[in-house]
Design a protein that fits this description.
Order of helices and strands: HEEEEEEE
Largest sheet: 4 strands, mixed
Helix content: 10-25%
Number of helices: 1
Strand content: 25-35%
Number of domains: 2
CATH superfamily of the largest domain: Cupredoxins -  blue copper proteins
CATH class of the largest domain: Mainly Beta
Distance between the termini: 58 Å
CATH topology of the largest domain: Immunoglobulin-like
Shape: globular
């Protein structure tokens, strides 16, 4: 007959293996790329230029300072269409309004250079660049 310590040790080991299996992606799900955070502080993106790999995701985080922001590469959303651009095979993205304390994520799959802006603060120079390098 097994004692309580060996039974407890076995239960902990089984639980640990199950946890590691699920969180290591052994379920067959494709792991997500890296998540890189860009802060929206005042009227600027921090950092305003970043280089990532295809499959990586950027999360723009609106600092809780009361301002509403937006992240867009859509020329129809930008104050000046010349302030945004995307690679040839990419589609424009637009976050809509991001309230203070909220965030927006976008996964980049097409290599190239993306220039984006925050239309409410575009004339104050709130623009950024993402370079996706294979």
């Amino acid at each position: 007959m097994r004692n309580r310590i060996s039974m407890l040790t076995e239960a902990v080991a089984i639980g640990l293996v199950a946890f590691l299996t699920i969180h290591a992606g052994a379920t067959g799900a494709k792991p997500e790329g890296n998540i890189v955070r860009v802060k929206m502080e005042g009227k600027k993106f921090v950092p305003d230029q970043i280089t990532i790999k295809p499959g990586d995701t950027i999360e723009w985080v609106n600092e809780p300072d009361g301002r509403k922001h937006q992240v867009t590469t859509d020329p129809q959303q930008a104050m000046d269409a010349n302030n945004v651009s995307i690679p040839k095979d990419a589609k424009p993205f637009d976050s809509g309004v991001i309230k203070a304390g909220e965030s927006y994520r976008y996964q980049f799959t097409v290599p190239g250079t993306y220039r984006y802006t925050c239309p409410p603060h575009e004339m104050s120079g709130m623009m950024g660049t993402v370079v996706v390098q294979p």
